[in-house]
Specification:
heterodimer; A: 19 helices; B: mainly alpha; about 70% helix; disordered C terminus
Chain lengths: ~475, ~220
């Protein structure tokens, strides 16, 4: 089962590379995404046993991240299919635009998209730190062609930045892996299996493990988009097409987050949880602050969303660092952020198609030009700021409550100030773009079902999670946070 | 055995200085290949002969032959000869490198790694190699030179692992090499595209095309 979850998308990806017909490729994409989602659900409910001697082991945390990723992938690929077929039509009329999507290029794109899904599944299923590392590095390579989809100079620059910065970051976490081996050389005999490490954590060389954690935090933190290593993120998210941004933000960042979370679990068992947690709280708060700072001056609405991802990854990191109940909140936050941000990026693709610009100042009157898109955008922006009944409200509230009850008044008040600032920026963008006067002579944009329903579905899901938390999900989250009892 | 290993580490340090000081990209790639050859001797220090032979061959083929060949090919196509206007000048680079070398020795002395069974000279050389790689990525503007820097960085990490006398997991090691291979291939492709789009491969001036929002669909 676990092997199928990883191999199905990769094999399908390789197969689509040889399919010439665009419509056929889109069908394969959506069908594979559906199969992947079903397999993930099946594995979630039936429970997966470790395979390959424990190298691949889907535990509760892995399942949670896998299912979130798989759902978002399914929704994004439905959108992608609609987007690519429409764009193909549009380009039959205006081929001279310089951004014509060649057929061979489309093949590479569909293949990379599916392989990207497979590598992310590998990260979720990894039960071995080395395999986790290989998986996270592989996601960079699988997604690089996706960032370069439009083949413009700016997307080229974004791709270069993305590959270079993330690879150096991942190199740092390789050093982290080596140092973990050193710190466990007496206790676990150099093994990198997560279960072995957690079992032998008590006998580890804690000083060396601290150094290792710092390397992991910087390395995987680069990929998670934590400040100050986030510089690749706005460029890559801004330049890639909507459904790729949605996957990068809602699924890829989570995978890197999972990497840090796994190491944090090992540190917690080794008795240095307060050190690793403290660092995570610090860097989380720094990320929220940096995001607030950069968002105020941001004129590009896709980049604004990208900075918002920095913010939310920071909040999740903060929650995970606090330990105890806050870990439940952090996991909830990760799920809700994936759904909401995925939805917002998909909607931003519609706005880009309707207005042809990414400058927030040039987009106004969405309520008349594209009413459904506009409404989704407005509600989505409110939801991402944690306005009730969005699911993000509950997770942010819980984290805040844990901070106050833990006596962290200064950091909690700082967090509140940053969140308030971000709310202001988001609300202004939402109101101006939605209610502002529509530009003269701007005809309304045809909104097809394939580009509205995916966003609507994700938005409803977030609201649902805000109003009602199923007992099953809560039990599941309790099991994850069980490893982080103070 | 131990003495010859020390020579390998010292050769690594010398190769790093040569890479820092070389202004011609072709020379840089040749030095990278040389560093691959030196690195391929390292596995004999702590592995049994069959394993060491396996890793030695792997490193020789990938780092001393395949990477330089790929990079030379990329260089032929983009016709860049030398690193014009590096961010940090060459003499300053060497001085900084000297400082970093001293720092690496100081750091390894502080960390008392030798007590854990590692080789102190090896670890200092590894830290210095990692520094060299990162420095090249930051201080040079040509895309190809930055790829060279990244490979040097990875060489340093490999040397670090070996000097810490860690058992190597073949699966993970293969994964690392494969990832590195894909990185070089991918960055090679991106370099081609950068050259095609901009007629140069200076990563510093990629955004200076004066068209802030040009080319955004539709």
């Amino acid at each position: 089962m676990t092997a199928a979850i990883i191999l199905v998308p990769i094999l399908a990806g390789i197969a689509t590379f040889f399919v010439k017909d665009g419509r056929c490729r889109n069908m394969v994409l959506v069908a594979t995404a559906a199969v992947h989602f079903l397999l993930s659900l099946l594995s979630l409910f039936s429970g997966a046993s470790p395979i390959l001697g424990g190298i691949l082991h889907l535990d509760e945390t892995g399942h949670l991240f896998l299912c979130t990723m798989s759902l978002l992938f399914l929704v994004s690929s439905v959108y992608a299919a609609a987007y690519m077929s429409e764009e193909h039509e549009a380009h039959k009329e205006s081929v001279g635009d310089g951004v014509y999507i060649a057929d061979s290029h489309g093949r590479l794109f569909s293949a990379s998209l599916l392989i990207f899904c497979g590598t992310m599944s590998l990260v979720c299923a990894a039960g071995h730190l080395g395999v986790l590392w290989v998986g996270i590095e592989a996601t960079t390579f699988a997604s690089a062609p996706l960032v370069y989809y439009y083949r413009t100079r700016r997307s080229l620059e974004a791709t270069w930045k993305y590959v270079m910065i993330c690879s150096v970051g991942i190199g740092f976490s390789l050093i982290g892996n080596l140092l973990v081996m050193v710190s466990f050389s007496g206790a676990a005999d150099g093994s990198l299996f997560i279960s072995d490490l957690k079992g032998a954590a008590g006998a580890a060389d804690s000083q060396m493990l601290m150094v290792a954690f710092v390397f992991f935090l910087v390395g995987y933190g680069t990929k998670t988009g934590l400040a100050p290593m986030h510089t690749w993120l706005p460029a890559a998210h801004g330049e890639s097409p909507a459904f790729v941004s949605s996957l990068l933000s809602g699924a890829l960042l989570n995978c890197a987050f999972l990497g840090i979370f796994r190491i944090h679990g090992i540190c917690w068992d080794a008795g240095i949880g307060s050190f690793s947690g403290g660092l995570m709280i610090f860097i989380g708060l720094l990320s929220v602050g940096a995001a607030a700072f950069f968002m105020v001056a941001q004129k590009d609405y896709k980049r604004m969303l990208a900075y918002s991802s920095v913010e939310h990854m920071g909040i999740a990191m903060l929650g995970a660092g606090l330990g105890g109940v806050a870990v439940i909140a952090a996991m909830l936050h990760v799920i809700n952020h994936s759904l909401t941000k995925g939805m917002l990026f998909l909607t931003s693709g519609n706005i880009l198609s309707a207005f042809g610009t990414r400058r927030a100042g040039e987009v106004s009157g969405l309520s008349r030009v594209a009413p459904e898109t506009g409404l989704l955008w407005f509600c989505g922006l409110l939801a991402i700021c944690g306005t009730p009944p969005s699911g993000l409200f509950i997770s942010e509230f819980l984290i805040m409550k844990e901070m106050f009850s833990g006596g962290r008044f200064l950091s909690a008040s700082l967090l509140l100030v940053f969140l308030f600032l971000i709310f202001g920026v988001m609300a202004r963008a939402g109101i101006e773009m939605f209610f502002g006067p529509s530009p003269e002579g701007k005809s309304s944009w045809r909104e097809s079902k394939g580009r509205i329903l995916p966003s609507l579905f994700l938005l409803l899901l977030t609201v649902l999670l805000g109003l009602y938390l199923p007992e099953g999900l809560l039990d599941f989250l309790r099991k994850i946070s069980g490893g982080f009892q103070p | 055995m131990n003495n010859s290993l020390q020579i390998v580490f010292i050769l690594m340090i010398v190769a790093n200085f040569a890479i820092i000081a070389s202004s011609r990209i072709r020379g840089c790639i040749k030095l990278l290949s040389l560093q691959g050859v030196i690195l391929s001797l390292v596995p004999f220090s702590h592995l049994d002969i069959p394993h060491a032979l396996f890793f030695c061959t792997l490193i020789l083929v990938v780092k001393a032959l395949v990477f330089p060949a790929l990079l030379q090919r990329a260089l032929r196509v983009v016709r860049a000869r030398r690193e014009t206007e590096p961010i940090v000048g060459y003499s300053a680079s060497i001085m900084l490198g000297l400082g970093a070398l001293i720092f690496s020795f100081w750091l390894c002395g502080r960390m008392n790694i030798a007590g854990r069974g590692g080789s102190e000279l090896g670890i200092s050389a590894a830290v210095f190699t990692i520094y060299t790689g990162l420095f090249i990525i930051i201080a040079r503007v040509k895309a190809i030179t930055q790829v060279v820097g990244y490979v040097v960085f990875e060489n340093g990490i490999y040397l670090l692992g070996s000097s810490l006398m860690l058992e190597q997991n073949i699966l993970v090691e293969l994964g690392v090499i494969l990832d590195l291979l894909v990185f070089v291939l991918l960055s090679g492709i991106v370099v081609f595209h950068i050259n095609k789009e901009f007629d140069h491969i200076d990563t510093n001036s990629m955004s200076d095309d004066g068209s802030a929002h040009k080319g955004v669909l539709p």
